[in-house]
Amino acid sequence: MLRLSLFAILLLLASGVNAQGQLVFETPRHDFGTFTEGKTVTHTFRFTNAGDAPLALSQVEASCGCTAPRWTSEPVAPGASGEVTVAFDSEGRSGPFEKTVMVATPEAGVVTLRILGEVTAAFVGAGVEMGALTFDRERAEVLPVPGTPVQEVFRFQHTGDRPVRIASVTASGEGVRTVFPQRPIYPGDVMAVMAMIDEPARGQTTEVTLTLDTDDAAQPVKTLHLIATVE
User: Fold this and answer.
1) Structural domain for 75, as ranges
2) Which of 43, 122, 127, 225 could be joined to 30 by an S-S link, Cβ 3.0–4.6 Å?
3) What is the pLDDT of residue 52?
4) Among 120, 155, 186, where does a domain finish?
5) What pLDDT sits at residue 18?
6) What integer pLDDT is reported at residue 17 of this predicted model?
7) What CATH number is associated with residue 193?
8) What is the pLDDT of residue 14?
9) What global pTM score does this model have?
């Protein structure tokens, strides 16, 4: 009888030692789809403790400062549920994205959550569509300080479905330099063309036409205008 009692006690102790929590998420991945730059989007990942002992989330860490997680802080009992809510700030972050959130527990190890989507530049829809590229504007007028160079940026987003390459950017007039992407521009990319006028003449208006030669089948040649007036 004593031997049976000792065996029962040892069995109970062994079952207690082996008991542990098990972290099971409904889904470890969420696609936000396409949305406009400037929004903060959130998603809640729900999980269940499928084990036979309480578990606690000891660490939740995002791969980017633009992603902020919140989570259930108290221990989750067996069979009970908890959640991890992830917020993504898209301000200044146009184009496709994929971020991860690492969820760690002493009992169940590490689980990786993923969020992804595509952010459309804020000017798309209100910008100027030129074939596969949509520009924030077609014409820029500036009033530079006398004696200082002009540096103006035209942002654009690739809103088509095939890569586009800018072969060259030709500027009318003298003393004008340009900077443009040298690599292929892929769908969703947000990039820019920069024009620099070394020193516009005082008391005059300098008008520069930028001609972009591309392999965009929808509109190979694109034209931008920069007007600088120095008083």
Assistant:
1) 22-120
2) 43
3) 92
4) 120
5) 64
6) 53
7) 2.60.40.10
8) 46
9) 0.66
Could you tell me if 132 and 101 lie in one domain? no
Q: Is residue 10 part of a domain?
A: no
Answer whether residue 156 is part of any domain: yes
Residue 79: its pLDDT value, please? Answer: 95
Asked if residue 221 belongs to a domain, the reply is yes
HEC letters along the chain: CHHHHHHHHHHHHHHHHHCCCCEEECCCEEEEEEEECCCEEEEEEEEEECCCCCECCCEEEECCCCEEEEECCCCECCCCEEEEEEEEECCCCCEEEEEEEEEEECCCEEEEEEEEEEEECCCCCCCEEECCEEECCCEEEECCCCCCCEEEEEEEEECCCCCECEEEEEECCCCEEEECCCCCECCCCEEEEEEEECCCCCCCEEEEEEEEEECCCCCCEEEEEEEEECC
Q: Which parts of the chain register pLDDT below 70?
A: 1-18, 201
